[in-house]
Amino acid sequence: MGRKTQENIAEGIRRLFAPFGGVELELPTRDLPREPRDFSGTDEKAADSCATMASANRNLGILLSGRGSNFEAIAGNIASGALNAKIAVVISNRSDAPGIESARRRGLNALVIPSKGKVREEHDRAVVAALREHQVDLICLAGYMRLLSPWFVQQFPNRILNIHPSLLPAFPGLEAQKQAFDYGVKVSGCTVHFVDENLDHGAILVQKVVPVLDSDNEHSLAARILEQEHIAYSEAIGIVLEGNYSIDGRRVVMAK
To answer: Sign of dihedral through CA atoms 235, 223, 190, 207?
Structure first.
C-alpha cells in the first residue's frame, strides 16, 4: 500500500471518530510490502484457473517426424485466417521428414535437430532451447515419434498439445486405427489433449467421433479419422490461445 493511500485512509478514520473524541493513528514509517501469491501446490484450483488467462503470445512450435499432414492443416487454417496464430518454428528429429520440406516451401523457420544416438533428455534440451529462442508459447506435436522426457513437459506445463487417432482413453499407443478396427468398435475418432508425463494421457480438449462403417477397412477408417484430425487440432489450438477454459483435475471446462 502506498504512503498516499495510507494517509487518505487515516484521515477518513480520524473524521469518522471525531464526534467521539477522535482517535490517534500512527502510520508506518515505510510502505507495507505486498505479500507474493504462491501457487506452488497450496491451491491447485487457483493454479489451474491461470489457464483461463488469454495468451498474449500466439506463437506455435510444431514438432514432427514425418509428412506432417496435421501441420499442413494448421498452416492452411492460419493462412486462411480461420486460426489466429503464427507458426514460429517447425522442428523435426529427422532430416528426411517431408514436413520439414513443406515448412521450408512455406517460408517458415524449419530446423532439424537429429535425435539418433542422443540420450533423450540431451535431445530434449536442444529442442527446448530452440523453442525458447523462437519465443514459442504453444507446442503442437504433429506426428512427432518421440516420447518427451518429464523434464521437457515440465518446461511447458499445459502448453504442449498432441493429437491421437482414437477416442482416448481407448486404444492409446501406435496403430490406434488398426486397434479400433480389429476390436470391432462401432465408433472411433480422434482426440486432442494436453501432454503430460504419461503416454496419450493428458487432459482432453477436443474429440471428434467417426463411425466405423461395415464397408471400412483399417485404411479407409484411418483416412476418415484424419479428416477430423485436421479440424480438431485447429479447434483445440484456438481454445488454448483464447484461454477461455480452466482445468479441474482431468477435465477441461470451457468458460461460460
So the answer is: positive
Tell me the CATH number at 139.
Answer: 3.40.50.170
The residue annotated as part of the active site, out of 164, 193, 201, 230, is: 164
pLDDT tens digit string along 20-52? 344 344 433 333 333 333 323 333 443 443 443
Respond yes or no: is residue 164 known to be catalytic. yes
pLDDT digits (tens, 9 = 90+) for 56-105: 679 999 999 999 999 999 999 999 999 999 999 999 999 999 999 999 99
Number of domains in the chain: 2
- Give 159's contacts (C-beta < 8 A, 6+ positions apart): 137, 138, 139, 240
Is position 18 within any domain?
A: no
* Distance between CA atoms of residues 86 and 58, nearest Å: 6
| Of 241, 243, 193, nearest in space to 49 by CA | 243
Task: Give the strand pairing for 160-164 and 251-254.
Answer: unpaired
